[in-house]
Amino acid sequence: MTAGTGAGPAAGGRRLFVLDTNVLMHDPTALFRFHEHDVFLPMAVLEELDAAKKGLTEVARNVRQVNRFLDELTSQASHEEIEQGIPLARALLKRDHPPEHSGLLFIQTRPLHHELPAPMPGNKPDNSILATALALQRDRPGTRVTLVSKDINLRVKAAVLGLHAEDYYSDRVLDDVDLLYSGLLELPADFWERHGDRLDSWQQDDRTFYRVRGPLTRDWFPNQCVYLGGDRTFEALVRRVEAEGAVLEVARDYRKASHTVWGINARNRQQNFALNLLMDPEVDFVTIMGMAGTGKTLLTLAAALAQTLDERRYAEIVMTRVTVPLGEDIGFLPGTEEEKMGPWMGALRDNLEVLTRTDSGGDWGRAATNDLLQNRIRIHSVNFMRGRTFLNRFLILDEAQNLTSKQMKTLVTRAGPGTKVVCLGNIAQIDTPYLTETTSGLTYVVDRFKDWDHSGHVTLVQGERSRLADFASVRL
């Protein structure tokens, strides 16, 4: 069994998991993720939680939630029960989630001494937690003690000292990021020969539809992008999955000059599928993943401008992203919310320059276009999204790979009637501490939304920025 999964009893019976502070900061419900096994909280963890409870950050909110859980568990327990372990099922039963098995919560009530190597002073919180876990391992020879931490360095030190340590896996969406749904599916070369005998086709509103029946359709998802390669080029989207088959809609070819989106054409198959999803009013939630230079932001902004200014489908465009610096933090920024977000929105400005570049109208025409865009594009910080509702908006979440699953839920649920949400990101460039490719909020929503009729996903794989950027992406 891996830490936090509760997959079943480990060899040798119950286990005791010692939680590091960063686990609770990352997931406040981690206390209840170990099923039949026991959880131990060192006093150093409680001290670190107390120091981090103030503020409006996501970490501070998580810490306050942990404190509420602990208060609920300890307020009804006597000192003897705290010594012997508090049943975690007590809190779970109140939430109408009775667990099949549940362990005990132990909180350090007395000093647990263990001699650490001389270069590791015990007054440092990490080393104090390490010493406590080693003391538990010494005092409980019949129990397998495991230190659970998202701090790689602490896990390395634990391994050096002979203590079993694991990462926290409960929030992991997939075991391997290679298993993540790509949104694209190449059909076998003999697809029409195997499925053509039970094929229906029709046209509606200048669009071509096929009803396909066969075993291959059982594994398809709504709005999945399917295609035939080679000489028999065919591109379509799965519009509906039925009991015995599926309905395909032939994708509009945005690579043609006659099908531009705000002056932009698709340059490859994946970009064409992305524009089909972005321009479809029936698809309320779109996720686009890809490395730098694949055109995620440019395509999304082009589709947003076309549907907001030309088709008037949306009232305005709202763009936001997590403000995680790549290098040193630039510190306090003066001005309004949009002015503070300015330095983080370089990608928006760069792509708007491409989309508004025109040879007609001169400086006056460009100035008029920029004024119009400023009135229709709003930039908001993630920090002020809680409690808001966006009606009839085109909401773009840029750099979504830096969001946790909880933050992603908070943002996506801001969508009101008539709003389309688009999440952009590259899970290979995660800057948020303790987030990985398999625990990112972007990975989370891609996996959870793949079977919803009004969502779509596509992974862009071919860079279109420049030959220098493409070469650097491959060689560096």
Summary tags:
6-stranded mixed sheet; 476 residues; alpha/beta; 2 domains; Rossmann fold; disordered N terminus
Number of structurally distinct domains: 2
User: Quick one: overall form?
Assistant: elongated
| Oligomeric state of this protein | single chain
Under CATH at level 1, the class of the largest domain stands as: Alpha Beta
User: What percent of residues are in strands?
Assistant: 15-25%
C-alpha Rg (nearest Å) = 26 Å
At CATH's second level, what is the architecture of the largest domain?
A: 3-Layer(aba) Sandwich
Backbone structural class? alpha/beta
**Average pLDDT for all residues:** 83
Low-confidence stretches: 1-12, 324-333
Spatial order of strands in the largest sheet: 3-4-2-1-5-6
Alpha carbon gap, first and last residue: 37 Å
**And the CATH topology of the largest domain?**
Rossmann fold
Overall helicity: 25-40%
* Tally of alpha and pi helices: 16
